[in-house]
């Protein structure tokens, strides 16, 4: 029996505040197989980036419970020196904001070479040669000259390509792409995603794609995890999620997508994601949900099977209740 490359079980992350601990991630389960692309989607503030940073052990909060198993080791319990040997070498990450993810006071070359010397023990000259090759691989023209530039001398798309070069420098088994097209124009977004797909196939990486752009998910992911208020509320294959969304939140997200074949007015999701410090006792989405009924405010729904391996955390799918999703 083969084991998944990454297996997260009941992950809980808290942030300490003056009023006490505040839960940001509340019992997340998530898996990635070798070479697979899995998307984690939801509105801003749902806990997607905190989940990603928890895998890398880079968040300011603390892991309050659960396991993050990667290649047979629990990252949540590794010592910091052991985690440094994983971070960057076996797991790479493209951070959310290319404009601020690079150190403004160091040249591009130094920032790429640092990864290679630290994790692969390359000499300065060998690291420089590898850095030139990496920039060429991610589509940056005149790569040797670019190594001598500072981040402010590059466009947003170029900065993102440099971030990708750093993330794949050690040929990681897992690449976490946290909003990899944020702040880029549409043409550059498409180029970056095509580049990531090409590199994934070349290197055999698994990719955890974190985004709120369902268009990217439809084109690049194989499975989808929909996250809301720190919990996974729906999980399934891309085809199942897009054709038969089972959770009212997923349905609302898809209804907000523009459809070039229709002239219908886009639907907005009323209200906002609740504060982690003021979560309702029951379903966190119930105050925004037009399908909410009697159990929703007081009881948190488990994940119900809606057509394996498609599951949704909604009382409307409880076999013991007569209610069903409205068409």
Notes on the structure:
The protein has 327 residues and is α/β, with parallel strands linked by helices. Helices cover 31% and strands 22% of the residues. It contains eleven helices and twelve strands. It has helices at 48-56, 80-86, 98-101, 108-120, 124-137, 143-146, 156-168, 186-203, 214-220, 238-243, 248-255; strands at 6-17, 20-32, 37-41, 62-70, 73-74, 91-94, 174-178, 206-211, 223-228, 231-237, 304-305, 311-312. The strands form two sheets. It has an eight-stranded mixed β-sheet, sandwiched between helices. A four-stranded antiparallel β-sheet has the order 2-1-4-5, covered by helices on one side. Strand 1 (6-17) and strand 2 (20-32) form a beta hairpin. The longest helix is centred in the middle third of the chain and has 18 residues, at 186-203. Residues 322-327 have low confidence and may be disordered.
Which structural traits does this protein have?
single chain, 327 residues, alpha/beta, eight-stranded mixed β-sheet, four-stranded antiparallel β-sheet, 12 strands, 22% strand, globular, disordered C terminus
Helix-strand blueprint:
Layout: E1 6-17, E2 20-32, E3 37-41, H1 48-56, E4 62-70, E5 73-74, H2 80-86, E6 91-94, H3 98-101, H4 108-120, H5 124-137, H6 143-146, H7 156-168, E7 174-178, H8 186-203, E8 206-211, H9 214-220, E9 223-228, E10 231-237, H10 238-243, H11 248-255, E11 304-305, E12 311-312
Parallel strand pairs: 3-8, 3-9, 6-7, 7-8
Antiparallel strand pairs: 1-2, 1-4, 4-5, 9-10, 10-12, 11-12
Helix pairs in contact: 4-5, 5-7, 7-8
